[in-house]
Amino acid sequence: MMHLYRLLMVAILLALGSQPAFAKWDEERDVTTNGKDELVYYFKTNDLGQKLVLDKYLKRLIFIQPDRLYKRTIRLIKVDEQSIEVMSDPFARFPEQTAITFENKDEVLKKLFLAKKIEVFVRYNRDESMNTFQIR
């Protein structure tokens, strides 16, 4: 009985020890369309009201800018000053949202979880902007 108790305590401590990597991101929960599974998404909102969602299920970022419904292109992000080339794909039904995908998904996902600062370079036709998200 005591051995089982010790194993349980070790499991709890390990689980608590792994939480700080995710604690920097805010958490949002959603239920799948079939209502059986609960999904957890991590996000940050900056001072301009833009939102960056870390989708660990499809291994991508989602950039949301509610007041700009123009078509946008994202080709570069910086994670703690390290440049990463990315691809972007706007959502047809949600024009304020753009999916950001990358080549080395697992490697980039790990960097994003541990990041302190993420910069997203967005192009709207000829206009460009840099959007910063502080992850602390």
What does this structure look like?
There is one protein chain. The protein is 23% helix and 44% strand. The protein contains 3 helices and 10 strands, in the order H-H-E-E-E-E-E-E-E-E-H-E-E. The strands form 2 sheets. It has a 6-stranded antiparallel sheet, with helices on one face. A 4-stranded antiparallel sheet has the order 6-5-9-10, covered by helices on one side.
Low-confidence stretches: 2-22
Mean pLDDT over the residues:
82
Query: Describe the biggest sheet?
Result: 6 strands, antiparallel
Described by the principal axes of the CA atoms, the overall outline is: globular
Strands in their spatial order, largest beta sheet: 1-2-3-4-8-7
The percentage of residues in β strands lies in: 35-45%
SS class: alpha+beta
Radius of gyration: 18 Å
Search tags:
136 residues; alpha+beta; 6-stranded antiparallel sheet; 4-stranded antiparallel sheet; 44% strand; globular; disordered N terminus
Topology:
Blueprint: H1 2-18, H2 20-23, E1 26-31, E2 38-45, E3 51-55, E4 60-64, E5 73-79, E6 82-85, E7 87-90, E8 97-101, H3 105-114, E9 117-124, E10 127-134
Antiparallel strand pairs: 1-2, 2-3, 3-4, 4-8, 5-6, 5-9, 7-8, 9-10
What's the gist of this structure?
The protein is built from three helices and ten strands, in the order H-H-E-E-E-E-E-E-E-E-H-E-E. It has helices at residues 2-18, 20-23, 105-114, and strands spanning 26-31, 38-45, 51-55, 60-64, 73-79, 82-85, 87-90, 97-101, 117-124, 127-134. The longest helix is centred in the N-terminal third of the chain and has 17 residues, at 2-18.
